[in-house]
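Why predict the complex rather than its parts? Because the way molecules touch one another can change local conformation, and only a joint prediction can capture that. The input here totals 646 residues.
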Amino acid sequence: MSSVSLRNIVKQFGTFTAVHKANLEIPEGAFVTLLGPSGCGKTTNLRMIAGLLDPTEGEILIGGRRVNDIPIHKRNLGIVFQNYALFPHKTVAENVAFGLKYRDVPKSEVPKRVQAALDLVQLPNVGDRYPKALSGGQQQRIALARAIVIEPDVLLLDEPLSALDANLREDMRVELKRIQDQIGVTTVFVTHDQSEALAMSDQIVVMSAGRIEQVGTPEEVYNTPASEFVANFLGASNIMKGQCAAAGPDAIRVETPVFGPVDVPSAKAGGVANGPAKLVLRAEKLTLMDTSADTSGMISAPATIETVDYQGQTVRYFLRVGEHQLQAINLIDERPFPQGATVTAAFRAKDCAALPGA
Amino acid sequence: MSVEAREARQPWILLSPALTAILLLLVVPLIFILVYSFWLRTATGADIAGFHLDNWQEALTDRFYRDILLNTLKISAITTIVCALMGYPAAYFIARARGNKAILLLLLMLPFWISYIIRTMSWINILGVSGALNTFLLWTGVIGEPVQMLYNQTTVILGLVHFLLPFMVLNVFVSLDGIDTNLEDAANSLGATRWESFLQVTLPLSLPGLAAGGLLCFVLAAGTYITPLVLGGPTDAMFANLVFEAIITQLNWPLGSALSLMLLAVLGVLVMIYNRYLGMAQLMKGLG
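Output of the joint prediction:
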């Protein structure tokens, strides 16, 4: 188990810069997720930590030791690939035992270690089968067993769940987190799926276009996005332009054309100064009500529903409020509002965040 | 007609031109050859039809034929091994090339645009007494007078390797190209060096392609008569040369038929062994 540090990492492919000056400290035993859309540089970062790519500039440290010049087979890492990458010509047990051959594990010890790893991923009886004979989810567990049986310093997971279908993905998510908790290995997880990132991580690193946009706990990145990109990438957000009129110690007042003044808690308005500012409001924090409903203590404005996107338990509305087109995701109470209805859109100031800039 | 019946019939309709050609141009002549092999040749006049085992007895018991058959198998085996050793690295390079694989494959196919006979004869211009290599060596003073480098077993093998190498490269390439590169990365991450992961993962997974390429090279080498004719000396005849000699030169069709069926049987056994252990599907993949 080891910490991982990226210091001023730059990766260029020809003239294309895949990673710009990335700095990241991953503490020992943490579960850290690199989250972003495809092409954001998250997999490039993972492959550089793994030693499958060389950084153009900067240093990578694992357990405090510079590993730039250490080849992949000496880094003692466990990697789980998106397509599992099990050796098709070897049995499950041979796959899991593969990494033990290159370590000082006594021959008599190998079957025990393999069995323990298979037990851990809850597939104790498939050792003599070939990978082909297993389902996708089972293959994924074997890939995980193969990666952790060597007791790696760091576990690297490259979109390990994306090849699974939706139900299995959620089961594996819980399973993966359980195993990581149990063995406590430092884990770097790459995904483009925000719900995986939110559910599993101690820390989320949101990346976009080769840059790290924000590093924080799931709650931090969700509730206090550091940029418009983060606000939009993690769930649906409404972003409204406004003016910061007065920055107080506890709250910052953002004047918006439609909703009037909104007092955003200072903790959620980092970097906002007098001048142009943006108000960030999550779609699920914007509540639609009958025009007759009591909105005391809330900020509200009349709205017209343009589109209704029914999702069973929840409903997503696209509505027009003055000059803005906003989204609201509400739990359904009895039945959703119909398209074209005039309603009141309301939210609480403390649920908002603010970003600097126009 | 029902949809199912139409679909069941369709493959046969599509196959029928090819099947007709194979039947008329391969199966029927093969039956003629089989029948011929039991006829008797007379010094004068027409062959005697009937069921005589004389040709077969000669072909199977004469040491001369046996020695040449063994020599043919030896030359084919050496050619196959040389093709494998030279072809595998080339195929690996193409399969792992970052650039345009299509162009590399096209370059590989380029020699097929020139007749195999011309390609074989081109060696005379290179290795012959007044060929390029002798001229160069004379000019540099390494040798005082021209050296005969042609017309021996080595030049036969050289010509065969030149002819057959692309078949080996293509087969191995197809096999390597189908191997997920993540497998090598995974092996490396688990502690194997690049060489170890090649031996543990890539090589075993590419063996079917290597075997398919090997079979093709071996069978084509064992059946050739042009290369030994052009590049071999008097003692370098291969088995197909005997068939050629018997049929074209001596006009002994019955003996030639028996000899060619003998070669067919030996190579057929090899193909059956291959099929038993590796299956024909891999060969088809390599050819496609």
